[in-house]
Amino acid sequence: DFGMAAFVGRDFSRVLTTFRGTKGYLAPEWLSGVAITPKVDVYSFGMVLLEIISGRRNLSEAYTSNHYHFDYFPVQAISKLHEGSVQNLLDPELHGDFNLEEAERVCKVACWCIQEDEIDRPTMGEVVRFLEGLQEVDMPPMPRLLAAITERSHI
Q1: Phi and psi, residue 67, nearest 5°
Q2: Phi and psi for 122 in degrees, rounded to 5?
Q3: What is the per-residue burial (b if ≥16 Cβ within 10 Å, else e) of 114-152?
Q4: What is the CATH number of domain 29-151?
Q5: Which DSSP category does 84 fall into?
Q6: pLDDT tens, 7-56?
Q7: Rounded CA gap, 24 and 135, in Å?
Q8: pLDDT tens-place string over residues 59-111
């Protein structure tokens, strides 16, 4: 859900900001009411990167007998990244045909993009340099929001 911040013509006396998007791909700013910047698109891009490398949706939901359960893949992704087992995140359709160093780099970039504080997210220019291998990517921290989601995955 890229480019969600739209420009409005001069004849409007006020701008009403509402958001639309796919659950699991929206940056926290959309829910908190703070100013929307291009970093919301960086967040969404990170979510898409995770979906591309894993071959699965980032949010899956299920209702079993008496409780609602959701699986939020970004939590698994950053956990596996920190454990050093990125290969377990990759799309099984790849059948092991991937460069592990590049896969780890993409996963790191994605996890930096989904940091809850926009200041911690890279710019898209930095994302490009990271993905091209022109700039080193440090290990991203576990976002507090993702840690909280992990603890509350059963509702």
Answers
A1: -150, 155
A2: -75, 165
A3: bbbebeebbeeebbebbbeeeeebeebeebeebeeeeee
A4: 1.10.510.10
A5: T
A6: 434 443 334 455 555 556 666 666 666 777 889 999 999 999 999 999 99
A7: 28
A8: 777 677 777 767 778 888 999 999 999 999 999 999 999 999 999 999 999 99
Q: How many CA atoms lie within 13 A of 78 on its CB side?
A: 25
**Lowest mean pLDDT, pick from 50-59, 119-128, 145-154:** 145-154
3-class secondary-structure state, position 61 = strand
Supply 24's token pair: 């699991």
Residue 146 identity: L
Report which DSSP code applies to 119.
G
Query: 32: which 2 tokens?
Result: 């908190």
- Most distant CA atoms of the chain, gap in Å: 56
User: What are the sequence ranges of the domains in the chain?
Assistant: 29-151
